[in-house]
Prior knowledge:
The protein is of the alpha/beta class. Helices cover 31% and strands 20% of the residues.
Amino acid sequence: MSGDGTANDPLVIRHLSFLGGMAVTGGWRPDQQLPEIAVAGRSNVGKSSLLNTLVRRKAFARVSRTPGRTQEVNFFEVNQAFIIVDLPGYGFAKVSRDKRHAWRGLMDAYLRNTTQLRGVLALLDARREPSEDDLDMLEYLAEMEIPTLVAVTKIDKLGTAARREALAMIARTTGLDADQVVASSAHTGEGRTEIAEAVMSLLDAPAWREPTP
Ligand SMILES: Nc1nc2c(ncn2[C@@H]2O[C@H](COP(=O)(O)OP(=O)(O)O)[C@@H](O)[C@H]2O)c(=O)[nH]1
Ligand SMILES: [Mg+2]
């Protein structure tokens, strides 16, 4: 069951709007004082696709044909109740070293400016061994003590045996328990219900930190 009906859907979408993007560090962020969930992962991991699955729209967040280009933090309001923060993808091989480190800067800028963050959905690609950037991101989130849910994307690309191996490899490399990692697919909708449930419970948690002056 991938949760296609809305009867047991933990996240029924009634209203969606794109609020805007923050392109430069210290830049704009929305006025809305709504709880936020941020989504992070390397460029091309399937972040936009998973966001679309989560909000049940085909093309709400743009699925990119030119990976590594957008270096923006984008804000989407859901049901006038919370905000999904689409963080820039990192680790695209063809961008310069400077740009590779821009992720950290944007993440820091976002964190400095939010008092609303409840948690991060961190994505890893099922077909790849977690990169140094992936591990850096997870370590960074752990150091900052930000509640984090890890989801593995594109699981539909693997057969039963490969899937088991991939999930074990990812658990081993990241040091996470296998049951802390949600297998997901934007194509089949697998994992959508579990991720939506986790998002809803993160939203109920207290803010990750008090505002800094
Ligand atoms: N098979 C499969 N392909 C996917 C999935 N999610 C994303 N993709 C493909 O991966 C590429 C990058 O997706 P996108 O959502 O733009 O990744 P982003 O750069 O992380 O936002 C696109 O060609 C998608 O069609 C998935 O769950 N299964
Ligand atoms: Mg994207």
